Amino acid sequence: MVTLSLDNVSVNLGRRPVLNAVTATLAPGELIGIVGPNGAGKSTLVRSLLGLLRPVGGMVALDGQAVADMPRRQVARAIAYLPQGQTLHWPLSVERLVALGRLPHLGPMSLISAGDYAAIEDAMARADVLGLRDRIATELSGGERARVLLARALAVEAPGLIADEPLASLDPGHQIDVLELLTREAQAGCMVVSVLHDLTMAARYCDRLLLLNGGRLVADGKPLDVLTPERLRSVYGITARIEDAGGWPSIVPLRRDVPA
The domain 4-227 is classified under which CATH number: 3.90.79.10, 3.40.50.300, 1.20.81.30, 3.40.50.2300? Predict the structure, then answer.
């Protein structure tokens, strides 16, 4: 298991402040959603968690060690990363694409071992893409590609998983597939963090939400404690109705209210 902590983290991009004094602890066993309007700092937060951006203030720690100072291979073994908006260019088979998830465990001249093959097989089974193993990845549909890329991340066998907007460009059915997969990983003891824009999906599937606005963490807690009508108005600038849809929460935007 792995725990990430942010202690008063501030990040600049160039001279522009993007994150401001963010403090939170991300622990195993939860699906943690990062939400907020465009430009709130969500992807910057993700890159900071991975040590890809060095804070100008505070520290991001992985089990107590500063992530920015850790070897990249060590971070990659601990936290699998699914970036947003991935485009596939090389005509690899699905199985070979998923096998790339084993790279953090391989040396420059290493051969794939029986243990690596077992991890690849298990990842494809968990992502339900075993039937696609011989397909060319560039020829997959959007939903198939999303599951295959998740399988590649799962093949790392990392105790942490961060997915940046994994629902982008997916239809509702495939969005459910992806979130149910992330939920299963969290329930199995993985630390799972996902950037999400669909607030209804976030409220239904996430155990906890971090709400960002203007680079600040404005709320951290259970989804319906975070996504109150007042916060939706102050952060997103909308009036919204929060409904119970057969035991599932539904966030229904009604109108633009005030500038966010």
Answer: 3.40.50.300
